[in-house]
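Input:
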Amino acid sequence: METFQIIVLLLDATFRVATPLVLAALAGMFSERAGVVDIGLEGKMLGAAFAAAAVAAVSGSAWVGLGAGILTSIALSMLHAYACVTHKGNQVVSGMAINIVVAGLTPTLGYAWFSMGGQTPSLSGDARFKSIILPFAESSRDIPIFGYLYVELISNHNIIVYLAAAAVPICAWILYKTRFGLRVRAVGENPHAVDTAGISVDWLRYKALIMTGFLCGIAGSYLSTAHGAGFIRDMTAGKGYLALAALIFGKWRPVPTLFACLLFAFTDAVQARLQGVDLPLIGVIPVQFIQALPYILTVLLLAGFVGKAHPPKAIGEPYIKER
Amino acid sequence: MAEEKVKFGAPLKIPGWVNYALIPLVNLIAALLISGVVILIIGDNPIEALKVLIYGAFGYPEAVGYTLYYTTNFIFTGLAVAIAFHCGLFNIGAEGQAALGGIGVGLVCLYMDWMPLWMIIPFAMGAAAIFGAAWAYIPAYLQAKRGSHIVITTIMFNFIAASLMTYLLVEVLIDPNGQSPESRPIIETTWLPYIHEVVSMPKTPLNLSFVYALILSAGFYFLVWHTRWGYEIRVVGQNETAARYAGISPSKNIILAMMISGALAGFVGVNEIQGVHHRLILDFTGGYGFAGIAVALMGRNHPIGIFLAALLFGALYQGGSELAFEMKSINKEMVIVIQGLIILFSGALEHMFRPKIEAIYRRFAPARPVEAR
Amino acid sequence: EDFKPAIVFDMGGKSDKSFNEAAFNGVEKFKSDTGIDYLEYEVTKVSEREQATERMARKGADIVVAIGFAQAAAVEKAAKAYPDTKFTIIDMVVDLPNVQSIVFREEQGSFLVGIAAAMASKTGTVGFIGGMDIPLIRKFALGYKEGVLYANPNAEVIENMTGTTPAAWNDPTKGSELAKSQFDRNADVVFAAAGGTGLGVLQSAADEKKLAIGVDSNQDHLHPGTMLTSMLKRVDVAVYNTMMSAKDGTWKPGVQVLGLEEDGVGFSVDEWNKGVLTEDMIAAMNKAKADIIAGKIKVTNYMDK
Amino acid sequence: MSEQSPALELRRINKSFGPVHANKDISLSVDRGSIHGIVGENGAGKSTLMSIVYGFYQADSGDICVNGQNCHIENPQSSIEAGIGMVHQHFMLVDTFTVLENIVLGVEGGYRLSAGLASARKELIRLEKEYALEVNVDATVGDLPVGLRQRVEILKALYRGAEILILDEPTGVLTPQEADHLFRILDTLRDQGKTVILITHKLREIMAITDNVSVMRRGEMVAHVKTSETSKAALAELMVGRSVLLQVEKEPARPKDTLVAVRNLTYIDADDVPRLKDINLDLKAGEILGIAGVSGNGQSELLEVLGGMLTPTSGSIRFEGKELVGSKAFAARNLRKIGFGHVPEDRHRSGLVLSFSANECTVLGYHDKPEYNRGLRLDRRAMVETCQTYIEKYDVRPPDPYLKASGFSGGNQQKLVLAREMEQNPDVLLVGQPTRGVDIGAIEFIHKQLIKMRDAGKAILVVSVEIEEVMSLADRIAVMFDGGIVGELAASEATEAQLGLMMAGVRDASSGAKAAV
Ligand SMILES: Nc1ncnc2c1ncn2[C@@H]1O[C@H](COP(=O)(O)OP(=O)(O)OP(=O)(O)O)[C@@H](O)[C@H]1O
Ligand SMILES: Nc1ncnc2c1ncn2[C@@H]1O[C@H](COP(=O)(O)OP(=O)(O)OP(=O)(O)O)[C@@H](O)[C@H]1O
Ligand SMILES: [Mg+2]
Ligand SMILES: [Mg+2]
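Output:
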């Protein structure tokens, strides 16, 4: 196969894998920019994945499933807010607790509702988001290079992949160009300033966490109703943590975060192709090392190029009215 | 000058028993209540479930042995996370450090097994500590010298440790006579003594490493609050500028604290490999490293608190498996839910009842006026 | 009567759509045929394995069936501690007087589905996706590869493993991505031996209109039309038989190797893959089956290498 | 609402924090169009009272009337709506934001920022002109010097339409020039009919600018007086409850050998900005060298280099003739061992660990001294005993060696730091902002201690942005501007005007100034 083709196909896989990471990382961005650590991304995604698949299976509509996924994720986000904002609880513990509760509750409910060992029925037809062929995909196929790119890379993804792509500029716009974004950024840096400006710190953080829940809900629904076709226990498999890593890697900014997600996804795609390949001089590298490659790469990049990341100053600290 | 009836600047102190006993108890009860509701929903008897849970954790000697065996691991990882916290670092890598610790112990027990037990013991401990510490050293170094975010690097190092472990067990250390990714068994002379061999109690996996855990807890307390090294670690953790002002090197202490942290996590390998499984296996770390974060936070980074939190987690692990076994409708997932709810209420929502309890306390125990100068 | 059987599932859980689920089906069949209830436990942590097996013995189980190679050490300990209890372990050999070990010749079944894969492939490239890179999975992979090359010496086999942590058995999205990457590299038939991850592989094949081969249980019903066949590993039969024999008093310790000859492994032909798995393929597979049983074809067992 | 009603009236305000009765039955009336001063020692309850007015805290009982109308002030929002603005003691700004963004925060005018920002920009330019509050609205606040940040805070309040402006210790961080500028601004505000409430420890400022003064002591309002009818001494006595010395008494210095000689010292920071340029200084035994200058002109870096926290880029520092730069001794820890003491400029940032108990803070930097260690063990008892003696000697309140550092007021925190550094009996003492945010009772005490050290033959370097303080404490004064030393003069010959000019960078402002060494 031509190198060009290989790269295009790798990028194509990259987009699919990056989608939930991008959405979850953007979700984390709202929370963390507002000063609330969110290691509960994993649990929220998992909860959403379950709700979306369960409701889609029952209703037969992926869109209804997506709605249920988003609502579930927002509800979990509100639990996080209730613990960390209202009751000033430890944000890391709260996130972990949510992850654990969801990991247990989803199969429990799945078992109770579907008697399929905690899984949901496999989704087909309208219960699943299918790939969309963009306009002119067929007619442009013959245009050299561009046509191939358009057909293979740009077209033929499900709606949520496009949503994720759109989410980056939209979130950037919200964060940098709206009142809400200004306040979110302010409250993560100095909640006292926000409070003295006559804005309720708690309510603002609640709103930011609703955004987090919303985006995480889409990310989770993607896993079970778009990329996959049904829920299976622990199906997030660490993507929440990876998204968090991407967020920190991207220094809590939307565009760099997008690139961090793409990088993770890309190394993952490359990793699949390197397995068992006989490299010149080196020979066949043990598969375990190839699988560790994305992580090693991340560490090297962090050590070499990215340097110190400056988190939002007030992150992790519950806001208590004092001086 | 008129004497003031209040001491300026000192808020009313709530006594220890309210802070450290009553409030946690109320939180625990709340978690159990919610769990009870979930159990009711799936159609079982919550009171019965609670009985089984407690009985399963503490009801008979064997249960106690298992509970304490799990507790041992949580103490190790709880202390590991806590020492890093004292230095202002978030060590999510205890899982990987524990895995490496296991490799260290495993290598000693596999290849130095000509030594008598009294020699193996320090070597195995040393190897666990050194391997764990070495695995923590790299993220620590990168944090201290290159500013790489330790949360990410430690997460990445968990993945890398898992890969390394699988590679070693599939390609290098695999038992030539076996088919699964495990090393050959270590010979019996290298096993850590079981507690039931010393004290009369039924056979359980509880072994000498429980004693290590207690000793290390005491050592932790001494190190952190009663030595100049602990003092330096805490200064760096609380205020890096003050540390530089005082001539305390932040990077040196970051590396030191993380290496101690990795060494502590590495002891999970001693308990699991030398104490129980007697061979190097995959996934023996079983999430203890992650749970260590909750243990440390719930235990307020203090060894006594960590012991109690570890005991709670140990009891949940052991009582939970009893629960899954005894009650058909309650499966392993339901047990996870109960564990999660307890972490939620005792950890994240710990302040929910505090103001009310404090207010009640104040009503019944009004402040004694203090003379101020 | 008070015959008490017990079963300990491994970490995937009894509804993993594959290996443990097959065992579960076997024990359920035993229950419905005899009306005898059983004790069960799903292991969630490595350290629970020993506790679970011993607990069964302590509770007075007559026979304890342990599912999965990882339980070997636990069975060994428990069998020594409870010499009067019968133990059966699946997928691993434990050499003790009160242990029956049942192992399967996965390579033989994989060989047959490899033939089907090679014949069904139009591109001459087929894929294999495993969970973790461990000997058992390599056993599947090697048999499969030999079968493919037997049917088409020029064929190419792409191999992928999912991961290095237990999450590798439960990551359907990763499975689906791996399958897609193999399709991108021209593969048009893929064989998944990866537990829950395999579900993603099968799904992906269905989405891309390629062919997939299931594993352990019959998974053909999951995606009729794109399921070529499933490599059956009759854990259900083994569990059922060992329990029955224990009940009847005919249970014997020692090693049982279940291959094609014993119908311990095989492939599925049913309403779901009708037409996908052609008569030609079935004929070729049956012929190879006979040859293997007759010793005319030697399939390499990875473990013997 | 009548023309005569006061702008702000407080009636019998009470507020307790647990058992601490921070405000007891406080009543206060502030005339419209006046500047009203509030003075009181550290912890007297001034900030608490103003936080109640601003809606940050809720009073336990009492009424607040604005323009004669009873107001229910529940949160800052309602206070802002009542026309009250506040400049807090610790600035409430987002460092990573621009000035403009900080000012519009909370009053953005619509969900989209761009429109709101554009109109705010216009309005701000008008306000800046009207009140002479120039500041670049596009600058990032974190990069601005304190004086400008304060302007931002004032602009913020004005932009919100504040009629009553509360300033909590606004001059604690300002140079005299900046303070004077602030007062001119306050004058303008008063002329425009606004009401100003000014909290300060500095009686000079009260006398200079206010119309009326209220004095608080230990949670109570002890006096309301007209400024024209009182004096500094009278106010000081009201505040502290005894008479205080407002000017340090000292003998002329008897300088001996040069202990520390700094030559051609240069420091370039990580961002390649030169912070110290070719500094030459001599610290002599038995003399106080004062460094005057507007904050941000290299004083902090000078202290940090001499204290071993920063490594100079080039130059030489000799101590008793031995070169320190490049030697092993040149690190904070080792400098302490050879006899350097260092009271840092910012006690919260570096002098203390706020979450540590007083006794743990007592050994900060000296924790590896033999007297605090027994073998491996850190000797807690010795730490507590030492702390106890410091507390007694320096009159730290409350006298509790186990209290967390954060539980002491700024003045008492400062005493803890001073005690620690002075009681090591160092040969060289570096002191940054010795009395920042400290009340007059404590200032008197701290100044006395420094003079005592000098008379005992120590070399002392005092960095302060308080020109008054430098003039009264120092024997020799060097003025820093833009990282370099503009000039050096004898304290006896210096005048405030002269120093002010030098601080602005005018090199030969004084005929009598000796050229830099
Ligand atoms: N958040 C709080 N919690 C508990 N007590 C407090 C709190 N804030 C203030 N206090 C108490 O109220 C008293 C008054 O404090 P306040 O800050 O009003 O003093 P102040 O006059 O502003 O002092 P300073 O001059 O140092 O700023 C303090 O002595 C303290 O004991
Ligand atoms: N959270 C708190 N709990 C109890 N007392 C407090 C608290 N915060 C402040 N105080 C008390 O309030 C008083 C004044 O504190 P404050 O911080 O205003 O001091 P300060 O002199 O203004 O210091 P600085 O100017 O350096 O900030 C102190 O006596 C302190 O004990
Ligand atoms: Mg104050
Ligand atoms: Mg103050």
